[in-house]
């Protein structure tokens, strides 16, 4: 395990990214980090915090997950997936909005949930769980609006200019939704140990995280039929993130959080996506091998 952080740093450098990582054995609490306490922009990873807050409020009876929500096309938060990309009015339950938010990172679904749950409730939930560096500052629509405003009249084309990207408030952890890799693995551990919510709600969170459709980041490091990966991605110009849990057939469970940033502004950078899986695999292998080397009586 001692050389794992160096190997992770080398992988980040080879992919042309600045990376932060934390990996945590859910059962033993053994851990491994690379700049794990650095504040990072969460982007859509913060939808996991919203999901936990939703179930936290449902568990206390503050809301019913089957409650229907009218989803008008007028004023929907923009995005390339889910309701954000749809044209017509529809009606969905809170829990089905949560599915869209997590499975395809639907921004419109996320902001409809935020309107019901509230930013303050999200922050109360993360504070209750001891995540001192994790905070929701604004809605996803507000975050996207700040990017549009900061990009200026040239619009999305301006985001190819590194000087424009450098001034985006959405990429400054002090001015946007933020956390640290260590906080995010603590949150995942709490969810997987049913410490964040009662068991039925923890199971629902784990189920919907397992339905994420994107295999090109975290899951790419674990291409095995008997290894289960559940996660949540997050992306903004130059940012590629994912947090999730990797479960091995022998019962090993590992929470991983990887946050990366690249100097290149291209929207498609396969190496930057793939290194999330590579770095996670190095970290999880180190923790998994350590567990196998420790006699059961000493665990």
Can you walk through the features of this model?
49% of the residues are buried. The two termini are 17 Å apart. The protein is α+β, with helices and mostly antiparallel strands and 299 residues long. The protein has a 5-stranded antiparallel β-sheet, with helices on both faces. The protein has a two-stranded antiparallel sheet with strand order 3-6. A two-stranded antiparallel ribbon has the order 4-5. Helices cover 40% and strands 18% of the residues. A hairpin with a 5-residue loop joins strand 1 and strand 2 (31-34). The longest helix is centred in the last third of the chain and has 24 residues, at 270-293. It has helices at residues 4-15, 46-59, 94-103, 107-117, 119-128, 140-151, 162-166, 181-192, 199-209, 270-293, and strands spanning 17-25, 31-34, 40-41, 68-71, 90-93, 178-179, 228-236, 239-247, 253-262. Helix 1 (4-15) packs antiparallel against helix 10 (270-293), helix 2 packs across helix 4 and helix 3 (94-103) crosses helix 4 (107-117). The chain is built from 10 helices and 9 strands. The mean pLDDT is 95. This is Serine hydrolase. It comes from Streptomyces carpinensis. Keywords: Hydrolase.
């Amino acid at each position: 395990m001692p050389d794992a952080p160096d190997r992770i740093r080398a992988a980040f450098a080879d992919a042309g990214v600045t990376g932060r990582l934390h990996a945590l054995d859910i059962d033993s609490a053994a851990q491994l980090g690379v700049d794990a306490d650095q504040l990072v922009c969460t982007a859509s990873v913060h939808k996991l915090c919203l999901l936990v807050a939703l179930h936290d409020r449902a568990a206390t009876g503050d809301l019913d997950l089957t409650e229907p929500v009218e989803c008008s096309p007028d004023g929907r938060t923009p995005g390339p997936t889910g309701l954000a990309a749809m044209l017509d009015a529809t009606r969905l339950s809170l829990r089905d909005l949560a599915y869209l938010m997590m499975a395809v990172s639907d921004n419109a679904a996320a902001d409809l949930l935020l309107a019901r749950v509230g930013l303050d409730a999200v922050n109360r939930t993360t504070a209750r769980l001891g995540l001192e560096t994790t905070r929701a500052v604004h809605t996803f629509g507000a975050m996207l609006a700040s990017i549009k405003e900061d990009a200026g009249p040239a619009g999305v084309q301006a985001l190819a200019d590194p000087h424009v990207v450098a001034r985006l408030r959405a990429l400054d952890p002090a001015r946007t939704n933020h956390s640290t890799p260590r906080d995010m693995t603590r949150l995942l551990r709490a969810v997987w140990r049913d410490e964040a919510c009662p068991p039925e709600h923890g199971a629902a969170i784990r189920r919907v995280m397992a339905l994420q459709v994107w295999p090109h980041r975290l899951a790419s490091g674990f291409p095995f039929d008997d290894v289960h990966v559940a996660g949540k991605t997050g992306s903004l110009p130059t940012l590629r993130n994912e947090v999730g849990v990797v479960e091995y057939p022998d019962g090993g469970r590992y929470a991983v959080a990887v946050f990366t940033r690249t100097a290149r502004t291209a929207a498609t950078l396969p190496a930057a996506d793939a290194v999330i899986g590579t770095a996670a695999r190095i970290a999880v292998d180190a923790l998994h091998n350590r567990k196998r080397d420790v006699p059961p009586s000493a665990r």
